[in-house]
């Protein structure tokens, strides 16, 4: 369908549209007009993605002189593919109606692991080793050597791509990662480098959050993006976590040992170089004296992670004299590693600010703040000079330098935490030194400054007024949309008492109480016997989930649950969890029934649709409220729930005990199993056709606002 | 006895009672508490505008659902499968022991199954039923296909215990192997009364479902607690229906929906001839050996027209020659399914609020169509004769009577004075009522009650059916009938001389 929102003709590839999709587009359009940032909450499953894509592409089409570019950020590769598939559908529709003038270039960008077509490279097991394997074949010095000695292997796809030079372009169209690989294979060009090159010219780029938020990656990929771009963060309810993680570093014992190995290896290289090619070290020294940390424009194959600090915080000075010489720098790093090792010997949890930490480093091993700050640049330069290609081996020393640079750069918003063991297993020493970023607004600040519109959207952004404060920005539009349903098919309940009428809670001081754990177990047990197919349980953290599942196992509750349904548990391992999810789905499909234990705001089960019979009941053991220091009172807490839940939450369902909740669930499920009129009863339209929309816009119907 | 003493005694008595309660306090609730906790009688009340309590009015809801069913099922004249082979699968797993239906799910299910079996044979005299139970993960064949309601009911009532898991796959596999043997003209159906919320299967249930689909077995499920995906999928794939019961009366409705024959499956719908025998009733006082019970009996019974064996009950298949044996009333009673009366139209309040057009009474039962307070209640009208009926009569006419009283009386009185189409003026109506004090419906109801007690041989067939099938051409025992299940009005059943 095709309709008008103010001056923009929106091409929407479906015949019907939900009213909330329409109002979502209206708000979005206003934000784009105002060239400001916006915050939009709309429930999952109401078609956010297509509404976003169709409005923004239509908006770009309506302003051909100065089209906006869309940078669409997703959290997972799976979501990226889904988004691109939807975009292709939309694009085909637009081309059908507008002809070839509507053609755009849209592509997804991911790591080499997902894009590489060279069978020798992509067979490596993880992302870092794929990157390293690629560098081994494509680094400029490797290629230079290969010109003289044909026995040195290079990547034929990269060579072809380099040969084609400016001819290597993608024709307009929508490319998923799969399509990029197919295109690369067909042409013999490296899809990864081709995609990275084309990102600058594309109308729509779909990639991961990190490419914009993590300065280490953003510095390479997103440096050249124009200001007239719309940045969309989809499923952004934990964008603050991504921001914080982008600037956080943790160092373990293994890291330090690896770093020592790295330093030894570099030392050998330096010695070798001194003997064979002392000129190269000399040249590097001269460059550093002149104040050039980088070698200017690097060939595309040589780029490595960029500086971990934000672009505006990078010092544009020359490297301090006492780390200019390679040997000196190595000895500084050695002392630093030694210092960290000493700190990790602690018996207690320690916490200190960056300033005291830097002061203590200075006092104990004589490394001042400026030297720390230049660690990253100096290391980068040295690695290039030494022509090291197996970057995956050198991740350890790189982590150390990242930490040093960050701690040397920032004095506020960070803290150093040293823990001697894991909270869950206090008898096993596993010391970890963490540099934690507390301020989510740091990492996202350059994004807000660089781009004209940033859209943050998700199914759950509540409380919606918290995000502007967390991320420190002023949205021009901030709205939460509800869901129009043909019938009340959501029944939220708040459980406060167990079957023995004692209060239950996931408050920290109550949660490990055996009575509370038993009551939660009873709740689940009762629920599995009245709810068909799939049940999903969310816990507030992995440690809490482990604890409670253990206690259920010991008391035999888990076994009783298994009589009704199979139990699957999310772990921190992606492969394991994917397998568990797969089997969970199968158990739901074949009628056996299953329970899936997952962690709210966890990383693995993010973005998985527990739709239809895959999620007949969701139990939240504790609500993952966005952590704020102030404590909400119960009523206040309630208003922090997303609007679409709140609108279905009846007062009578606010203070239930287990048996009441089970009864309500049973009655609700019976009611939901009754056949109903899909067109919506009582004249409440939930799907609008083109005519309905036109009528509405002309002011005939005012059912929306 | 002084007052104090009696008080003391009472207190003591009370105390004892309390102790007893604590002893048998299994679930942590007293028996009286349990009835309230489980039944929640207060939830079936609602407040009206003036704040008075009244029971929640489910009647309109039920009626709306009934109307929807009517629209979907009896749209126009569709071919129906009159010869049905139905297996009723009853879930007797652990979940059937739950007490959300009183006294327990399985008792309620058995009660409804019993009523259904009787109703089924009443409506489908040519069909057969078998019973299968699911228990402890296995399926067990309780009774083989047969036409005698009593034997099924007896077998079912003797087996009412619940334990273990239910396995849908095992049940379907068993039914599939049993139904695969029946002749191709018969319609294969399974009705599953499913209490459990999961199925514990030995293999891939999807394969079994595809197998059932390939064998044209129509599987329907009635759930007792919530919608289960696999059941929905099964019904979708095999063309059955899936409903979940709200309470016992709803369950009854849902079960009874399966009594009238479903639309024929296209592949089976080609008209073909079926060989049938119409046995003659044996003379009184004749001693013969009964082929079904293998013993000598005096009088009664029927004689197979082909092999002359003695049979006790109809309809059945002859034990000796395998001929399908029916009696002509059986056929006649199956017949009305082919010509359902058209669904009545809802009368919108705007039309019925116009005082001139307002019919005061239901044409069927003569009860007032007005709610207390003279507000017009919802009613329906027949699109042919334009008479108004109340909702109860609507259901009765469509589900039991199968004739529209309005149309019938209109037809009878074409030569008479009354029946000017839509409206009778007040005087005329009074006159008409005076002349005919008994409404048509009441008469029909009474005649139906009378019929119930009589043997099928003596049933006085309904007028209309007599008109449609020329029954007088039928001489029992000498004819075989070929029933064309293609039921456009032109293709009335043909009877072919044997």
Automatic annotation (TrEMBL), chain A:
Keywords: 4Fe-4S, ATP-binding, DNA damage, DNA repair, DNA-binding, Helicase, Hydrolase, Iron, Iron-sulfur, Isomerase, Metal-binding, Nucleotide-binding, Nucleus. It comes from Rehmannia glutinosa. Signal peptide: none annotated. It is found in: Nucleus. InterPro entries: ATP-dep_Helicase_C (IPR006555), DinG/Rad3-like (IPR045028), DNA/RNA_helicase_DEAH_CS (IPR002464), HBB (IPR010643), Helic_SF1/SF2_ATP-bd_DinG/Rad3 (IPR014013), Helicase-like_DEXD_c2 (IPR006554), Helicase_ATP-bd (IPR014001), P-loop_NTPase (IPR027417). NCBIfam families: rad3. Residues 7-285, 29-269 form the Helicase ATP-binding domain. Its cofactor is [4Fe-4S] cluster. This is DNA 5'-3' helicase. Its main location: nucleus. Belongs to the helicase family. RAD3/XPD subfamily. Its EC number is 5.6.2.3. It catalyses: ATP + H2O = ADP + phosphate + H(+). The keyword Translocase does not apply. The keyword Hydrolase applies. PANTHER family: DNA REPAIR DEAD HELICASE RAD3/XP-D SUBFAMILY MEMBER, GENERAL TRANSCRIPTION AND DNA REPAIR FACTOR IIH HELICASE SUBUNIT XPD.
Automatic annotation (TrEMBL), chain B:
Residues 7-24 have a biased composition (Acidic residues). SUPFAM superfamilies: Cysteine-rich domain, vWA-like. Keywords: DNA damage, DNA repair, Metal-binding, Nucleus, Transcription, Transcription regulation, Zinc, Zinc-finger. Residues 1-30, 433-466 are annotated as: Disordered. Residues 433-455 have a biased composition (Basic and acidic residues). Residues 85-259 form the VWFA domain. Its main location: nucleus. It is found in: Nucleus. Pfam families: C1_4, Ssl1. Belongs to the GTF2H2 family. This is General transcription factor IIH subunit. It comes from Rehmannia glutinosa.
């Amino acid at each position: 369908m095709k309709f008008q929102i103010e001056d923009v003709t929106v091409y929407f590839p479906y015949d019907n549209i939900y009213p909330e999709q329409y109002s979502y587009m209206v708000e979005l359009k206003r934000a784009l007009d105002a060239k400001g940032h916006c915050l939009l909450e709309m429930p999952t499953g109401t078609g956010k993605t297509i509404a976003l894509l169709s409005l923004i592409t239509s908006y770009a089409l309506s302003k051909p002189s100065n089209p906006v570019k869309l940078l669409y950020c997703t959290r997972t590769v799976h979501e990226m593919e889904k988004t691109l598939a939807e975009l292709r559908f939309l694009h085909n529709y637009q081309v059908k109606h507008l002809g070839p003038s509507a053609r755009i270039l849209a592509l997804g960008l991911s790591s080499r692991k997902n894009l590489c077509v060279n069978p020798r490279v992509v067979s490596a097991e993880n992302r870092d080793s794929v990157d390293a394997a690629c560098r081994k074949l494509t680094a400029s010095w490797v290629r230079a050597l290969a010109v003289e000695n044909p026995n040195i292997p290079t990547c034929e796809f990269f060579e072809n791509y380099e040969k084609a030079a400016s001819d290597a372009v993608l024709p307009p169209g929508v490319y998923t990662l799969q399509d990029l690989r197919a295109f690369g294979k067909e042409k013999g060009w490296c899809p990864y480098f081709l995609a990275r090159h084309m990102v600058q010219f594309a109308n729509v780029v779909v990639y991961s959050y990190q490419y914009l938020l993590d300065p280490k990656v953003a510095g390479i990929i997103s440096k050249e993006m124009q200001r007239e771009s719309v940045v969309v963060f989809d499923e952004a309810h934990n964008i603050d976590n991504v921001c914080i993680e982008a600037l956080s570093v943790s160092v373990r014992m293994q890291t330090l040992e690896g770093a020592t190995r790295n330093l030894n290896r570099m030392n050998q290289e330096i010695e070798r170089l001194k003997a064979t090619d002392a000129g190269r070290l000399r040249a590097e020294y001269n460059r550093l004296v002149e104040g050039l940390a980088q070698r200017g424009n690097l060939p595309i194959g040589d780029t490595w992670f960029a500086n971990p600090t934000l672009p505006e915080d990078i010092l544009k000075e020359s490297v301090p004299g006492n780390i200019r010489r390679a040997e000196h720098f190595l000895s500084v790093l050695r002392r630093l590693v030694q210092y960290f090792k000493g700190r990790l010997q602690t018996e207690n949890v320690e916490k200190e600010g960056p300033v005291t930490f830097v002061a203590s480093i200075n006092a104990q091993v004589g490394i001042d703040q400026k030297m720390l700050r230049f660690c990253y640049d100096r290391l980068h330069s040295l690695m290039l000079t030494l022509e090291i290609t197996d970057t995956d081996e050198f991740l350890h020393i790189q982590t150390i330098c990242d930490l040093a640079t960050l701690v040397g750069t920032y004095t506020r918003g960070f803290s150093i935490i040293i823990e001697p063991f894991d909270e869950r297993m206090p008898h096993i020493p596993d010391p970890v030194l963490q540099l934690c970023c507390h301020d989510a607004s740091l990492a996202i600040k350059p994004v807000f400054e660089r781009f004209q519109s940033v859209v943050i959207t998700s199914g759950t952004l509540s409380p919606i007024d918290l995000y502007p404060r967390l991320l420190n920005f002023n949205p021009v539009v901030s709205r939460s949309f509800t869901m129009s349903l043909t019938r009340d098919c959501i029944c939220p309940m708040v459980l406060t008492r167990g079957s023995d009428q004692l209060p239950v809670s996931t408050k920290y001081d109550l949660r490990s109480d055996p009575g509370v754990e038993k009551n939660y177990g009873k709740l689940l047990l009762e629920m599995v016997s009245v709810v068909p197919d799939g049940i999903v349980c969310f816990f507030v953290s992995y440690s809490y989930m482990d604890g409670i599942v253990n206690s259920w196992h010991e008391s035999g509750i888990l076994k009783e649950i298994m009589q009704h349904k199979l139990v699957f548990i999310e772990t921190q391992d992606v492969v394991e969890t994917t397998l568990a999810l797969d089997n969970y789905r199968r158990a739901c499909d074949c009628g056996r029934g299953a329970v899936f234990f997952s962690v709210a705001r966890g990383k693995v089960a993010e973005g998985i649709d527990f739709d239809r019979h895959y999620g007949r009941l969701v139990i939240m053991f504790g609500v993952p409220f966005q952590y704020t220091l102030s404590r909400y009172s119960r009523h206040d807490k309630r208003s922090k729930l997303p609007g679409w839940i709140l609108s279905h939450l009846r007062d009578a369902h606010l203070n239930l005990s287990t048996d009441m909740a089970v009864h309500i669930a049973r009655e609700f499920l019976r009611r939901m199993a009754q056949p109903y009129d899909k067109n919506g009863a009582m004249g409440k339209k939930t799907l609008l056709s083109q005519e309905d929309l036109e009528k509405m816009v002309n002011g005939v119907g005012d059912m929306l606002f | 006895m002084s007052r104090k003493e009696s008080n003391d005694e009472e207190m003591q008595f009370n105390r004892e009672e309390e102790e007893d309660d604590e002893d048998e306090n299994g679930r942590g609730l007293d028996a009286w508490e349990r009835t309230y906790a489980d039944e929640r009688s207060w939830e079936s009340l609602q407040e009206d505008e003036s704040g008075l309590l009244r029971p929640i009015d489910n009647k309109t809801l039920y009626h709306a659902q009934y109307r929807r069913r009517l629209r979907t099922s009896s749209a126009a004249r569709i071919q129906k499968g009159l010869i049905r082979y139905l297996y009723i699968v009853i879930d007797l797993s652990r979940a059937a022991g739950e007490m959300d239906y009183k006294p327990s799910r399985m008792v309620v299910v058995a009660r409804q199954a019993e009523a259904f079996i009787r109703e089924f044979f009443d409506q489908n005299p040519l069909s057969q039923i078998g019973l299968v139970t699911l228990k402890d993960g296995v399926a067990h064949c309780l009774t083989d296909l047969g036409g005698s309601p009593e034997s099924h009911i007896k077998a079912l009532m003797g087996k009412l215990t619940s334990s273990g898991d239910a396995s849908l796959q095992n049940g379907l596999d068993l039914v599939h192997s049993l139904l695969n043997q029946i002749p191709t003209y018969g319609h294969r159906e399974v009705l599953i009364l499913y209490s459990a919320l999961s199925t514990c299967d030995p293999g891939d249930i999807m394969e079994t479902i595809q197998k059932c689909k390939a064998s044209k077995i129509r599987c329907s499920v009635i759930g007792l607690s919530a919608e289960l995906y696999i059941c929905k999928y099964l019904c979708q794939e095999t063309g059955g229906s899936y409903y979940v019961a709200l309470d016992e009366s709803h369950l009854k409705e849902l079960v009874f929906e399966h009594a009238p024959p479903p639309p024929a499956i296209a592949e089976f719908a080609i008209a073909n001839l079926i060989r049938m025998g119409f046995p003659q009733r044996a003379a009184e006082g004749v001693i013969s050996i009964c082929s079904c019970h293998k013993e000598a009996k005096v009088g009664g019974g029927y004689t197979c027209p082909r092999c002359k064996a003695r049979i006790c009950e109809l309809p059945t298949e002859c034990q000796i020659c395998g001929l399908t044996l029916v009696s002509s009333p059986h056929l006649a009673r199956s017949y009305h399914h082919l010509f359902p009366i058209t669904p009545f139209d809802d009368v919108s309040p705007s039309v019925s609020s116009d005082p001139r057009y307002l019919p005061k009474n239901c044409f069927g039962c003569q009860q007032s169509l007005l709610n207390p307070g003279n507000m017009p209640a919802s009613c329906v009208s027949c699109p042919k004769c334009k008479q108004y009926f109340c909702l109860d009569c609507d259901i009765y006419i469509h589900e039991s009577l199968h004739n529209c009283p309005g149309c019938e009386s209109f037809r009878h009185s074409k030569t008479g004075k009354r029946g000017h189409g839509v409206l009778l003026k007040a005087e005329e109506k009074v006159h008409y009522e005076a002349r005919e004090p008994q409404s048509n419906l009441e008469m029909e109801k009474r005649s139906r009650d009378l019929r119930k007690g009589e043997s099928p041989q003596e049933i006085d067939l309904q007028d209309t059916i007599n008109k449609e099938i020329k029954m007088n051409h039928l001489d029992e025992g000498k004819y075989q009938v070929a029933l064309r299940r293609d039921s456009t009005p032109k293709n009335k059943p043909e009877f072919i001389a044997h």
